[in-house]
Amino acid sequence: MLITTLEKLPKFSGKSKQNVSNWLQEIQQTMNLFKLIDTEKLLYISLCLEDYAQYWFYDNKHLMLTWAILTQKLLKIFFKECIK
User: Fold this and answer.
1) What is the DSSP letter of 9?
2) Which domain range does residue 71 map to?
């Protein structure tokens, strides 16, 4: 049920028209509903990414030691794009 739910959520691609902050909030709410711990969130987040954002994630996965680090890096890299 979790994977099906995550697959139905909007995917984040990193394109400028997407708001990473809003997207991340929706993803976090869903993951919190399923009471996922941080390590589980890190495992499942790739289901919610596509295109450039997914490539970025896999290229930098070794740096994402915690959920907090991942969210900070997502916002740092992609928030600039959504306000252009």
Assistant:
1) S
2) 2-82
What pLDDT sits at residue 84?
Answer: 47
Tell which residue, 81, 83, 26, 13, has the closest CA to residue 53. Answer: 13
Q: Are 21 and 59 in contact (CB under 8 A)?
A: no
Task: Please choose, from the candidates 43, 37, 38, the residue with its C-alpha nearest in 3D space to the C-alpha of residue 6.
Answer: 43
| Residue type at 26 in one-letter notation | E
Q: DSSP assignment, residue 17? A: T
Task: Name every residue whose Cβ is closer than 8 Å to that of residue 51 and which is 6 or more positions away in sequence.
Answer: 13, 14, 15
Percentage, residues of the chain above pLDDT 70: 94
Our count of domains for the chain comes to 1
Tokens found for residue 41: 């969130």
Indicate the pTM of the whole model: 0.83
